[in-house]
Amino acid sequence: MAFNSADWTIDYTLKTVTNNDSGTGTNLPSVLGNYTKVGTVLEYFQWLALEFANSSQMDDDYAFLSDTPTVYRWVNGWAFGHADDFKYLQGGSITSSDGLDFWSNLYTLGTQAAGTVIYMVQNDAEVPAWWIDGNIDILVKVKTAGTWIQSVDTTGTLTDGGVWLYAREFGDEYDHTFVDISGGTTPAGINTTSDSANQTSNVTVAGYNDISITFGIVSRDLNNGNGAVNYDCEIDCAGRPMTEVYEYLKYVTSYDYDLTLNGDDGQEYRSAIEGTYSEVKKAPFGTIAGGTLYGARGIWFTNYSAADFVLIDAAGATQSPPNYQKVTVSHADLAGQISTDGSVTVFVAEISGGNIIKDQYVIASVTTTTIDATLTIDINKTPQSGVIRIGDTRYDYTGYSGVQFTGVTPDPTGETGDFYVPLLDLEATDIVAVTSKQSDNIIYSAPIDVRTSVRRYGTKPYTADTTFGLTGLSFSPILTDDPQAV
After folding, report:
1. Does residue 442 or residue 332 have the better pLDDT?
2. Domain locations in the chain as residue ranges
3. What is the reported pTM?
4. Is residue 33 pLDDT above 50, yes or no?
5. What contacts 292, CB < 8 A, 6 or more positions away?
6. Which of 285, 289, 425, 268 shows the shortest CA–CA distance to 358?
7. Is beta strand 327-330 parallel, antiparallel or unpaired with respect to 442-444?
């Protein structure tokens, strides 16, 4: 880049030096493609020094002084002619004649993916960019009318002359940093690269908006033996795999997408508790590797297709999920052969080939939506949601904790005695127009002997004794028409 004095006009009466392009308010270097018109403050000084050394200017007040090769100041009431003039300069700092305004020099070092826009946030507002893609070398106004423009730093402290820099192009690993540029000339490191786990079209990922993000302290139990602990943000995954959840969380924190998180722009989101929690710069909600999402501190996931994640609770402790597995029943004509007057069940058995256990629990009390047992619910033999059987009556439940099943429907009032929980219990209406169905997550700790059973009038009964194991249980029943049952 080369400085061109023909781009500037000196007004000796008004004591201003004005860039010829800056006056319209929209003619900024990157907008016009005129970044070649940007020059260094040193070159700017040299031009003015030469002009004012001319004998014809000896009766004019001197305009611009150098203190060091990168520190300069207006003197004798001289000033920029337009507010945007400083945007055509780089490589040094400038102080106004009265010392009340200060333009500091900021430049970045590092390597970014092609097409990366480094954007700046000052005083919690994005500064409209006048610079081009990639590394920047700019002047930033950090003091006006004697007052520093402040930004909250990494510890939550208001800092004179502080700014945040971000690089968040969807599809890349992100980066951001806080820089105190009150000193004059300050470097900042920004590095990005392509994110192999974030290559789905942004249009497609935008459609994952059934995922919801709610901020606020919640107490949650991962059923990993550590009990209920606090988290600061709950993400409902809408039944999606963590690979899709990860890309959506990248989307909502990326540049150019007008989304709000926790009351602020998503493109500025850094952590659940900013100024306190360590920040995950590459992906603010957590990184992914090998299909496992490693959540940032304070993030809780719910309603996921599989527990492919590791969490950090609000206290900073790592919380790894237990081995969640499912029961899956599959058949090419499952819906066609079972969806009318049919049932699919997987019951816990006493031993392999033994009786179904129908007295797992005894009812202690009931309400219109809950059933309490006399014993603690066995988390290793109970789906996160599913069906309770009291005798031959089926009740759906949506969750459990301790001794209590919650979200029970229909109303179980009046029920007493023994009850049990199948690993999978499907009626005909549960399997319309499908070729496979799954249970909710079940925590595996040891093999479970089970009896699988599929029945429908018109089809010979299918029964098989097997085991729910380390990788769960998948089975495909043999369904044969019964010519006598027509």
Report:
1. 442
2. 5-194, 206-321, 325-475
3. 0.78
4. no
5. 242, 308, 309, 310
6. 425
7. unpaired
